[in-house]
Every structure is written in structure tokens, then in C-alpha cells.
Amino acid sequence: MDLTLWQYQFRIIMLGDSTVGKSSMLKRYTEDKFLECINETVGVDFYVHFLEVEPGMMVKLQFWDTAGQERFRSVTRSYYRNSVGGLLVFDVGNRASFEHVRDWYAEVCEHVMPHAMIFVLVGHKSDRELAGERAVSKDEAEKLAAQLGTTYVEASAKTGQNIQMCFEVVARRIYQGLQSGEVRLREGWDGIKSSVLQAQQLQSIQDSEQTKEKKRCC
Predict the structure, then answer these.
(1) Contacts with 93 (C-beta within 8 Å, 6 or more apart), sequence order
(2) What domains does the chain contain, in order, with CATH numbers?
(3) How many Å apart are CA 137 and CA 76, to the nearest integer?
(4) Which value, in Å, is the radius of gyration of the alpha carbons in the chain?
(5) What is the mean pLDDT of residues 40-66?
(6) Confidence class of residue 38 from pLDDT cuts 50, 70 and 90?
(7) How many of the other CB atoms lie within 10 Å of CB of 109?
(8) Could you tell me the pLDDT band of residue 217, with boundaries at 50, 70 and 90?
(9) Inter-residue contact 51 to 61 (CB < 8 Å)
């Protein structure tokens, strides 16, 4: 792993019911591709993307795409604690997926407390509105986002609308939280990694080994 490519790594988890389009969003963002048929996520899939959050500050975004089915929840729960960000995704044409957002939010908060996680609420498949298939109004979604203390974005992997915005909003919010102290680097936690810190630790190990070698030589 070349630590010179990025200064920080953020782990972000995709949350929401099955079929809301989490994998399609990631495919569009990381590869700029949209597939009409995409294999259902089994357990957890991984995606990586690099983003310059400000001039000269490169962040490695590691996404965990979780399965929404109940039978995989015991697997996906184990990934909550090592995430610093979460996209709460629902399908604007599927009211049940919107009503389950609070459940996803509560479940994640239960596992990460007392530490903070940065969320963004995403109303996916916004293209369904043109077909008259909208089941959740924008006002309802914005009200929920306000109650959860987060930002709301409507997006479509099919058309590409606001997909980049979804991921960049959460990444920049995490970076801002890191600067303000809202989120912190913690020992033994993989939600945020610092390449500078890792380089310092590596140098410390090398210095220690060299010191031991000199003592043996003496």
C-alpha cells in the first residue's frame, strides 16, 4: 500500500433495505457504469475511490456495501463499529424502505455509541418520479433528515443525477468533523486511518529495530 497516495482513509458503510440500489450507486460512482440487472449483495462487498476533499488533501474512501436482507444482518452488524460514515438509502418509489430508515439509523447508533458516525440520507431512484412511481415526497424525506440531524440528497444511479454529490457530501462532512474534533482517530479503530500516523509508526518501528541491531553489534 503506497501511503503517499492519500493522507486519510475513511470507511463508509451503505445502509438500507434490499433492492434500494446501494450497489448500483457505488457502481456508478466508482466506475461510472449502470447495470439494469446487478447481482444481489451477499454479506458485504467492497469498493474504493479517491477524492481530493480540498487542494492537496487526498482521501481514500473505502465503501462497505451491506446486504439489506435480514438473514445477513448478523454479518453486516459486525462492520458498523469500524465505520465513520454511513449512507442511509431508500427508494423514493418504495414507501416501506423509507419507513425502515429509522430502524437502520437506530441499529447503527446502538453499535457505534458513544462514538460519532456521520450520516447522509439518500432518496435513490429519483428517476421513478417521471414514471409517476414516487411514493415518498421530498418534503417528508427532508423532514426526516432534519430529525436525524443530517443532509438529504435525491439521486439516481440510472441517470447519474447527484450520485457524485451523495458520496462527496459524506466524505467532506467526515473531513470537517475530523478538523473540528467531532470525529477522532482512535487506537485500534479502522473508521479513519492517517497515512502520516502510519508512516510515523513505521519509522518508529524501524528506528527501534536499528537501535536493537546497534546494541547487538556493540
Answers:
(1) 125, 128, 133, 134, 135, 136
(2) 8-217 (3.40.50.300)
(3) 29
(4) 20
(5) 86
(6) low
(7) 16
(8) low
(9) yes
Judge contact between 92 and 134, C-beta under 8 A: yes
What is the total residue count of the chain?
218
- Which pTM does this prediction carry? 0.83
Q: How confident is the model at residue 37 (pLDDT cuts 50, 70, 90)?
A: low
Contact status, residue 12 vs residue 170, Cβ threshold 8 Å: yes
In a 3-state reduction of DSSP, which class is residue 68? coil
Mean pLDDT computed over 127-137: 94
The mean pLDDT of the chain is 85
Query: β-pairing, 44-54 with 151-154?
Result: unpaired
Q: Which three cell numbers stand for residue 147?
A: 430529525
**Type of residue at 138:** K
Structure confidence by residue, pLDDT tens digits, 58-105: 999 999 987 655 444 555 677 788 899 999 999 999 999 999 999 999
Long-range CB contacts (within 8 A, 24+) of 49-54: 49/167, 50/5, 50/6, 51/167, 51/168, 51/171, 53/171, 53/172, 53/175, 54/175
Q: Which residues contact 121 (CB under 8 A, 6 or more apart)?
A: 88, 90, 101, 141, 144, 145, 148, 150, 151, 152, 153
